[in-house]
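batch_manifest entry 22 of 60
target: HD domain-containing protein
source organism: Thermus antranikianii
requested by: lab member K.T.
priority: normal
notes from requester: please return C-alpha cells only, no post-processing; we will run our own comparison against the previous entry in this batch. if the run fails, retry once and flag.
--- input ---
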Amino acid sequence: MALKRLELPPPRVLLLVLLAFLGFLALEGFLLWAYGGMPLRLGLLDLLFWGALMLWSVSVRVPLPLSASMSQFFVFALALVALTPPWVSPLLSFVLQWRRKAWYKEIFNSSQNGLASALAALAWQFFQQNPVYMGSWNLSAGVGIAAASLAFFLANTTLVTTAISLANKITWREAWRKNFSWLALSYLLLSPLALLLARAYETPLLAGWGGWTVLFFLIPLYYSRFYWDEKVRLEQAFDTTLELLMNALEAKDPMTRLHSERVADIARDLARKVKGGDEAYAQAVYRASRLHDIGKIAIPEHLLLKSGTLTPEEYGLIQSHTTRGAELLSPARKVAFDPLVYNVILYHHERWDGRGYPKRLAGHEIPEEARIVGLADAYEAMTAGRPYRKAKTPEEALREVQELSGHQFDPKLVEAFTELWEQNPIWRDRQAYLEAKEGSVSHSTSTPRSSDSASPSPSEPGSRTSEG
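--- output ---
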C-alpha cells in the first residue's frame, strides 16, 4: 500500500512549528537539569487526577474565529506549577494536547502549551526563591502565581496569534483583536483560582482528599467557560438572524436573488487583492457586504417593487436605505459590529466624483471598504439586469466599470477589479454564479423591483445609472 503523502503547511508556518517545538525541548531540558533533584510531592494517582482535569478542559474548549479555540487548560497547568517541580507541568501540557489534527498542528499546539507552562514555572520559581514581603506578610505565592499566569498568557497568545497571522495572511494585530483581546481580562482574573486549587489540594477538607475540594471549585470554572461559549454562540446567532433578514428581502424579487451574496463574494476578492492578501479584512468586508442593503427592510414594499420611473420624493425615500440600515443595526454597534460595517452600509452609494449619497463624499473621503462594496454592487447590478434595461454581458459591464473609473469608482480599485475579472472568477458571469450556488435556474418572469439599484442619480431625478 502506498504511503499517504505527508501534509505540509506553508514554509513560514512550518518554521514557527519547528521553533516552538525546539524551544519547548530546550526549556524542558533546562528545567530537568536545574530542578530534576526536587522531590515530586505527588503520587501517580495524583498526577492521573490532574491529567484527567487537563484532558477534560481540552475536550470542552470554545471555538474562536479564524480556526482558533480556547480552553481553561491554563488553570490546571498553573495549579500543577504550584504543586510540582518545574518540569512536570510543561511535560504534561505537551503530552495531553493531542487531538487527531494535522501532525504539524498537533506538534505546534503541544509545543506552545508546553513552552507557556515552562515559562510560567520559571516565573513561579523565581518568586519562591526570591520572596516578596510587605511588612510581615509573605506575598511570594500571590505575586508568583500572577507572574506565572502573565507569562503563560503572553507566551500562549503570542505564539497562537503568530500562527493564525501566518496561516491566514492577516495582520498580527487583527488576529489578536478577533481572538484574544476580549479574553485577556477574564483570563487573568481566573488565574488566582489556580493557586486556590493547588492550596485546596494540599489541605483536604472533605474525606481526607483534596480532590473533592478541587472538583467543587470546578463549578465557577464551568460557568466562566459557559460565558465564553455563549458569547461566541450569540455572535453566530446574530449573524444567522441577519442572514435570514437579507434572504427574506431578496426573496421579494427572484430576479435579484443572491444579490448580496454575489456582491459579497466580489467585494471579498477585491478587498483581499488590494490589501495584499489580508484575509481578516477580506472577511470583514464580506460580512459587511452581506448587510449593505439591510436598510431596504424599512422601505415600503410597493416602492421597492415599482417598475416605473421614480418621483424625486420616492427616490429620496429609496436613498434613505443607507441611513436607515445604519440606524437599524445601531443597537448592535458595541456588541456585534465594528465601524467597517457601518461605513459600508452608509457610504456604498457615494461616488469618487462626489455626486453620490447620502453625504456626497468624494475620493478618499469615502472609506475604502465602502468604495470596494460600491464597485462590487454596481457590477452585480449591471450584469443582473433591471426592468428598464437588459442585463449586460460580463464584457460590457467591465467596459462600463472602466469608463466610470475616476467618476463613479476609485481608479486603483478599477485596476484591481480588472485584474481579478481577467482571472475568470465564478462571480464574473451571473448565470454561472447562480447555477453554482443553487443549481440550474430559469430566468424569472416576475416583475422586478425598482430599488436604488435602478434608481435615478441624486443630481438627475428620473434617470437611471449604474449604481448597484
